[in-house]
Amino acid sequence: MLNVQAASLQERVDAAASGETIRLEAGIHAGSIVIKKSLTLIGEPGAEIRGDGTGNVVTIAGDDVTLAGVRVTGSGLRLSDDNAAVFVTGNRATIRDCIIADSLHGAYLKKISGAQILNNRIRGKTTLLASTEPVEKGIGRSSENCDTTLVANRRGNGIHQWNCENNLIRGNNISDTRDGIYFSFTNNSRVEQNLIHHVRYGLHYMYSDGNVFEGNTFTENAAGAAIMFSKNLIIRGNRFISNRGHRAYGLIFQSSDRSRLEQNEIDQNAVGLSFNQCNANLVFGNRVTNNYIGLRIGSNSDENRFTENVFAKNLHPVETGGSDVSETRWNVNGVGNFWDGAVELDLNGDGINDLPHREIDLFGVLRRDFPAIAFLSDSPALRLLRFAHERAALPGVNVIEDRASLTSQFWKVRAQQLNKRASKQ
Length: 425
Fold this sequence. Notes:
- By secondary structure, the chain is mainly beta.
- The chain is about 10% helix and about 35% strand.
């Protein structure tokens, strides 16, 4: 019989039968370890698997492995080798209730399906001892005090997925990594109820289709989310809040098609929603508020539909960048969007204005390239121009026109209508 007290963790893993559960006692267990069979590792309070600063700490190479309740630390720092606290190549892995720290990537998922990454706390490695060897020949270090800072671009991602399918990422708290969650060629997965903060991109995403993002919060990042070159997505009920900086964004939606952006809160960002070169998307019921620029919409987009969105208290409601956005539809079935400052004229009381609302953009990208020009945005001359443009379209002015804009009473009217229908049933 194997002496548990004397055996290393790798020896215990190797000796265990497939399907067995190993309970890790409180204390430090030396990594790295490789799991090649179906096993469950459950940590007692205070259990830690600690790497030696090289390679991966835990490699899950077998199918149907569960890692739960363990602190995992001490991976290598070589980006070229994709070093990670937990490196997964086995299908249907479950990583739950773990604390992952002091590593490059948190969890790296490679060519797998059916994984569940649940309720973990992932914090990236931010500092190196001044006496340690340079990271990849010194790139990415900046000396400050006794320690050196591992700059953001040289850190790994919180959860990194490449060429994956049908994974679930739920309830994780991710901070101080390069990007919070990274998607590349990963399809039909769900990302739910995660909190991602103090990273570069909360969600960095490309070439991945059919995924659902719901109920996540992206805050205090350089950008909340950058979604690019993808299709058939659902982005619902997320919060993109306080992502700030000279060119920071709440949500960048770029070259992505046939998707739904609905019921999201986009608040207090430098640019709230950036929408460019996208086709056949539905943007429904979002709140875009208190941003420096509320909506940045570019050209080369077609058949996109905006309806029941709220654009309010943005310093600059719209930036078109001098592009023609006439192919965008600003109402669906006669229901447009709410724009604060719009003239409200609703003679039949249906909550929809009888006159079209126009938003003009005179300055375009100049307001960011030359920030001082923003002081002109509320000048008497510009206010007069806006007033005139509300009543008659002016030639040669970049404009979006919402022909069924909503009054402040629209949602109250709709609620009354729904109550009447329910009472008749």
